[in-house]
Input
Amino acid sequence: MEKRTQEWLRQSDYDMDTADYMYHGGRYFYAVFMCHLAIEKALKGLYYERRGQPPPKSHNLIYLLSEIGIKPPVDQGRFIVKLSEASIPTRYPDELAKVQKDYTENVVREILTRSKEVVTWIKRQL
Output
């Protein structure tokens, strides 16, 4: 495995750990943001490994999947679309109270679990 790929994956794992930390600290929508970032970095590691060049400077998970040329299982694909839609509101919330209401402990627990499954799936593609 390429050195740069390994670095992307280390950062992905670190970001997933940060998502757990934010979740346990009650910073739920930040946990969602970190889940997105962890998946993004895992995809960028896979991109680098397969293409041997730096990945596109994009936060769009669907675009990255397309550029790599892989399709996740249907349930994970749906989750990735949902998480992608959460990227902007959790990164730049229009209204703090709304994102806090939308991303409750139970909702985010499920997002964390699913995100870990997606990162594991991405790593299996290496």
Remarks:
- The chain has one domain: 3-124.
